[in-house]
C-alpha cells in the first residue's frame, strides 16, 4: 500500500504532468471508485471544462485542485495514475479516464479496485469525509514535538497502532511506522501515553527523518507502487527492519524479529527496541520486559538510555 512518501512522489509527478491542462470529458467505467457524488453522470459532467491548477496531498490522499472543484483521490492498495496520448489503447483495469483538451488522458488504473474518488466544491473538502477527521501532517511545520505530545499523551493504546491511526497523525503506514520506531529505539508495543520526554523527541525526529528520506528517494516499492511516470521508487533499499525478519540488525547484529501488533505484521530489533517502561502512576510502578532483551535495564533507568543505539 502506498504510504505518505509514495503518495507525495505521485503528487510531485502528477504536478509536472497535468497542471495547466483542461478537462474535456471524463469516462468512468467502474462506478464504485466514485464515492461522491452518488450519480456517476453528474461526476462526469461536473468536471467538464475545468482546469487543473495544482495537485495537493493530505495524508495519503491526493487533492486534484481545479477552478472551483477539488477531487480527493485515494490509491489504496494498487491504484495508480498515468498520463497517455489518447491514441494509446487503455490498459486493463483502467477505471476512470480524464480526457484533456490537448489530446492526452489522465488514466486511473486499479487492479484491486479499492481506490476512491470524492468530488467537492472547493472549500468543502475539509469539512466532509474522508478528509474531515485527519490528524497531524508529519512533514509540515505544524508537526511540532508539542503537538505530537498532545496527541500521544491521551492514547493508552500501544504506540504502533496509535501511529497508524490517521485521526492522530496522517500518512504513516506499516512500513514507515516500523522504520521510525526502530530509529527511535522504541518497542512497537510501548503504550503511547507513557513515552518519556526523551522518547517523544526521538520518535518525533525519527518520523520526520524517515518520511523525509523516503520522499527524497521517491518512495518505497515494496508491492507494486509505481509513480505517475512509471518509475519505481528506490526507498526499499534503505529499509532497516521492515521485511528483514531473521536478518542481522544494522546497528547491533541481533536478528530482526517479526510479530503481530494491533493485527499488523511488525518488524523490530528486540535489542535496540526493548519493551520496558515505568508507569507515570508511581503507586503502580509497572515495568515490563519481553524476552529477547539482551540488556538488563532497571525500571527506573527506562527514562534515559534504554533503547538508545550506540
Ligand atoms: Zn539492534
From TrEMBL:
Enzyme Commission code: 3.2.2.23, 4.2.99.18
Region: Disordered, residue numbers: 283-310
Entry's Gene Ontology BP terms: base-excision repair
UniProt entry keywords in alphabetical sequence: DNA damage, DNA repair, DNA-binding, Glycosidase, Hydrolase, Lyase, Metal-binding, Multifunctional enzyme, Zinc, Zinc-finger
Catalytic activity: Hydrolysis of DNA containing ring-opened 7-methylguanine residues, releasing 2,6-diamino-4-hydroxy-5-(N-methyl)formamidopyrimidine; 2'-deoxyribonucleotide-(2'-deoxyribose 5'-phosphate)-2'-deoxyribonucleotide-DNA = a 3'-end 2'-deoxyribonucleotide-(2,3-dehydro-2,3-deoxyribose 5'-phosphate)-DNA + a 5'-end 5'-phospho-2'-deoxyribonucleoside-DNA + H(+)
Coiled-coil ranges per UniProt: none
Domain (FPG-type): residue spans on this chain: 240-274
Cofactor: Zn(2+)
UniProt-annotated catalytic positions: 2 (schiff-base intermediate with dna), 3 (proton donor), 60 (proton donor), 264 (proton donor)
Annotated InterPro entries: DNA_glyclase_Znf_dom_DNA_BS, FPG_cat, FPG_Glyclase, FPG_N, H2TH_FPG, Ribosomal_uS13-like_H2TH, Znf_DNA_glyclase/AP_lyase, Znf_FPG/IleRS
Domain Formamidopyrimidine-DNA glycosylase catalytic: 2-115
Ranges annotated as biased composition (Basic residues): 285-298
Gene Ontology molecular function, alphabetical: 8-oxo-7,8-dihydroguanine DNA N-glycosylase activity; class I DNA-(apurinic or apyrimidinic site) endonuclease activity; damaged DNA binding; double-stranded DNA binding; zinc ion binding
Free-text cofactor note: Binds 1 zinc ion per subunit.
UniProt: DNA binding residues: 93, 112, 155
SUPFAM superfamilies, sorted: Glucocorticoid receptor-like (DNA-binding domain), N-terminal domain of MutM-like DNA repair proteins, S13-like H2TH domain
PANTHER family the UniProt entry points to: FORMAMIDOPYRIMIDINE-DNA GLYCOSYLASE
Description of how the protein assembles with itself and partners: Monomer.
Family: Belongs to the FPG family.
Function: Involved in base excision repair of DNA damaged by oxidation or by mutagenic agents. Acts as DNA glycosylase that recognizes and removes damaged bases. Has a preference for oxidized purines, such as 7,8-dihydro-8-oxoguanine (8-oxoG). Has AP (apurinic/apyrimidinic) lyase activity and introduces nicks in the DNA strand. Cleaves the DNA backbone by beta-delta elimination to generate a single-strand break at the site of the removed base with both 3'- and 5'-phosphates.
NCBIfam families: fpg, PRK01103.1
Protein name from the UniProt record: Formamidopyrimidine-DNA glycosylase
Organism of derivation: Fontibacillus panacisegetis
Amino acid at each position: 500500500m502506498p504510504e505518505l512518501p509514495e503518495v507525495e512522489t505521485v503528487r510531485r509527478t502528477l504536478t509536472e504532468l497535468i497542471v495547466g491542462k483542461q478537462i474535456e470529458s471524463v469516462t468512468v467505467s467502474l462506478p464504485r471508485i466514485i464515492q461522491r457524488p452518488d450519480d456517476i453522470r453528474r461526476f462526469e459532467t461536473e468536471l467538464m471544462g475545468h482546469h487543473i491548477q495544482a495537485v495537493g496531498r493530505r495524508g495519503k490522499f491526493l487533492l486534484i485542485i481545479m477552478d472551483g472543484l477539488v477531487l480527493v483521490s485515494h490509491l489504496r492498495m494498487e491504484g495508480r495514475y498515468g498520463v497517455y496520448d489518447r491514441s494509446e489503447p487503455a490498459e486493463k483495469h483502467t477505471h476512470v479516464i480524464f480526457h484533456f483538451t490537448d489530446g492526452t488522458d489522465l488514466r486511473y488504473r486499479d487492479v484491486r479496485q479499492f481506490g476512491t474518488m470524492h468530488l467537492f466544491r472547493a472549500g468543502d473538502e475539509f469539512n466532509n469525509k474522508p478528509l474531515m477527521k485527519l490528524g497531524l501532517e508529519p512533514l509540515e511545520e505544524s508537526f511540532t514535538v508539542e503537538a505530537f505530545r498532545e496527541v500521544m499523551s491521551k492514547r493508552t493504546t500501544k504506540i504502533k497502532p496509535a501511529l497508524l491511526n490517521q485521526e492522530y497523525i496522517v500518512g504513516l503506514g506499516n512500513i514507515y511506522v516500523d522504520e521510525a520506531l526502530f530509529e527511535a529505539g522504541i518497542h512497537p508495543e510501548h503504550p503511547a501515553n507513557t513515552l518519556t520526554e526523551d522518547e517523544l523527541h526521538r520518535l518525533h525526529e525519527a518520523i520526520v527523518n524517515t518520511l523525509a528520506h523516503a520522499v527524497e528517494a521517491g518512495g518505497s516499492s515494496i508491492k507494486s507502487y509505481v509513480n505517475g511516470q512509471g518509475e519505481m521508487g528506490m526507498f526499499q533499499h534503505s529499509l532497516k527492519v521492515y521485511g528483514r525478519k531473521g536478518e542481522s540488525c544494522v546497528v547491533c547484529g541481533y536478528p530482526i524479529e517479526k510479530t503481530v501488533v494491533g493485527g499488523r505484521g511488525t518488524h523490530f530489533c528486540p535489542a535496540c527496541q526493548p519493551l520496558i517502561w515505568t508507569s507515570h502512576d508511581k503507586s503502580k510502578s509497572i515495568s515490563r520486559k519481553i524476552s529477547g532483551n539482551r540488556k538488563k535495564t532497571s525500571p527506573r533507568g527506562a527514562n534515559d538510555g534504554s533503547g538508545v543505539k550506540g
